[in-house]
Amino acid sequence: MNVTPIGRNPGLDTLRALAIVLVFANHYMIFVSGGPTLGWVSEIGWAGVDLFFALSGYLIGNQILAGIRKQQAGSERFSLARFYARRLLRTLPNFYVVLALYAWWPAMRGHSVLPPLWQFLTFTQNIHLTPGTAFSHAWSLCVEEQFYFLLPALALGMAMLRKPLAWAWTTVVAALLAGMTIRSLTWSGMSAGELNSGQYYTQIYYASCCRFDELVCGVALALLKNYHAAAWTRLTSFGNWTLAAGAALLALTWSLLLEDHYGHIMTVYGYPLLGLSYCLLLTAALSPGSLLQRWRVPGAASLALWSYAIYLTHKQLCVLLRAPLQALGWGAESWQALMIMSAASVLVGWLLYLLVETPFMKLRDRYVPSNYLNASRSHQTVTA
User: Fold this and answer.
1) How many angstroms separate the CA atoms of 295 and 377, rounded?
2) 338 with 28: CB under 8 angstroms?
3) Backbone angles phi and psi of 212, in degrees to 5
4) Were 336 and a residue from 178, 240, 330, 367 both cysteine, which residue would form a disulfide, CB within 3.0 to 4.6 Å?
5) 372 - beta bridge partners?
6) Where are the domains of the chain?
7) Could you tell me where the DSSP H helices lie in 189-299?
8) Exposure string for 96-107, b = 16+ CB within 10 A, e = fewer
């Protein structure tokens, strides 16, 4: 079944669906099969999280910057309280339900240790996170929630300065340079033994200050769209060229990361390269008439719609299914097990979306229909 709600962009849906497929392939390799069941896709699948970051950076950045622009024009008044309320109603219900399963159902966490609940509730679980702990993949949600709370306040404060646009672009560049510098210094301060252990993940991969490159790149794209209309129109008139450029740069970046993900060069420059690659693909998805925008990949809209719920549940679900399927003679490397676990992940994600996410989204649409004060339902944003 392919669900395409009115107002959704097929290109963005395709990218979001690609992101969840990549993450599933990587988690299946690490936590279920123990080998690259889907080949290099499994090995590079961790970069699906970075695609989610780029999507969030653009979509949330676009909401905030469009709101500020309208407020500056005097047509609307952007409400920080409404923005936060809409974000929390979108992200917290699913997260809390899954967190409750980890906390109250021992089978959900297996032999893994669950970090203190306060770390999840405050979205600080990614700080000094030990790899292999229960619900460890929530680290990316922590990074995004920190971003959701910081960006609007920062953007509104910057809008009050003289020459706010110059300050905005300076901040984007400074943030990217800061991320590269922090990763470089952190990597250089680690021994070979630490680099080959989980410390790389704890100090670099999970750390907020090291993992905002793609989010910042997405915000830069939203900044270009909202404050450089002529340049944006010209750029999006070459949608298929940006699609080709993005695909080529992504292929190069992925190959370099597959070869030396943990080396100094790719630790420093790999994430900005991912951010640039994904933003080129985002631009293609937003370009009228481009192949990425026009091509409706079967099932992509549904996967995109359920991707958040699938992300939260798929990893441990597959771990739980591994033993029963093995008893039936279907090892984790078999195509039967892969198909069953894939289908189960989609089904459980759909159920979580239907039973938890959808009711709260309806409440959001009823009580907080937009980010603007005294706004009508017509201002709803359906892609974020």
Assistant:
1) 29
2) yes
3) -105, 10
4) 330
5) 78
6) 10-379
7) 192-195, 199-200, 213-227, 229-236, 239-260, 264-285, 291-294
8) ebbbebbeeeee
Q: Any idea which residue has 């497929």 for tokens?
A: 21
Q: Per-block average pLDDT, block size 10, for the chain (384 residues)?
A: 59 98 97 95 98 97 93 86 95 98 93 95 96 95 95 92 94 97 96 86 96 97 96 96 98 97 96 98 96 93 97 97 96 96 98 98 95 61 48
Region of 105 on the Ramachandran plot (φ > 0 left; ψ -120 to 50 alpha; else beta): beta
Phi, psi angle pair for 189, to nearest 5°: -90, 5
Rounded to 10 degrees, the C-alpha dihedral 57/45/136/197 comes to -120
Question: Which amino acid is present at 15?
Answer: L
> Distance between the two ends of the chain, CA-based, in angstroms?
21
How many CB atoms neighbour CB 164 within 10 A? Answer: 16
Nearest 5 degrees, angle CA 85-CA 86-CA 90?
A: 115
Who's near 172: CB < 8 A, 6+ residues apart? 216, 219, 220, 223
Residues 6 or more apart in contact with residue 173 via CB below 8 angstroms: none
The SS3 of residue 296 is coil
Could you give the CA distance from residue 151 to residue 218 in angstroms, rounded to a whole number? Answer: 12
pTM of the model: 0.94
312 burial type by CB count under 10 A (0-12 exposed, 13-18 middle, 19+ buried): buried
DSSP secondary structure code for residue 115 in this structure: P
